[in-house]
Request: fold
Amino acid sequence: MALAFILLFPLLAVSSLTPSGELSPAPAGGLTWQSLAYSVWEGVMCVAMSITVLVWFRGRLNHQGRLARAMAGASYAVYVLHPLLIVPLAIALSGLRLPLELKFVLVAPLAVALCFSVAYLIRRIPWVRGVL
Amino acid sequence: MAGERTAAPTQAAAPAPAGGSGRLLFVDNIRIFLTLLVILHHLAIIYTGQGAGSTWRAGRTRSATPSAPGFVQPTRPTSWGSFC
Reply:
């Protein structure tokens, strides 16, 4: 059921292709059946994904090592600070000419490590821990 | 659900976490997971140029290929409306 619903998305995407192969703007809004279908799909997915994540983590990931504990502690700081880190990172690496998909895959771990490290260090400053 | 405040609510077999901080460890882990998704989502917007307006595009890194709804799109439904 859930899988069927997920698989509806590509169908929806294909159905909104115009004969010339362009993606039509119909699902984006307005009184079109594609828009209705997409809205329903998005709403159901939103709720379903939230519940799935909760249940899945409760069943399988209800434990924590030292790294996970440190990361969880830093997660709010990461959430607040990551734009200040990933945008300069992206600009700094903008001289690097690579296919963008490949670049994303390469930069992603770097960005994650950078964000969590910086957040971890910032939280070691006295008083910061009370806020971030 | 509201009454289950212990670390391992329904998993009778799950060992009690060390430290006994009373934190719901799986919720802590979900926080890590969602924070990771936020970082990756925003990075994906930088490198694909789609998504949240122009806020996240870093000038020349904007993609010319509209080929990657692969990441930005599936993460949308969760929809971050309140999260990013």
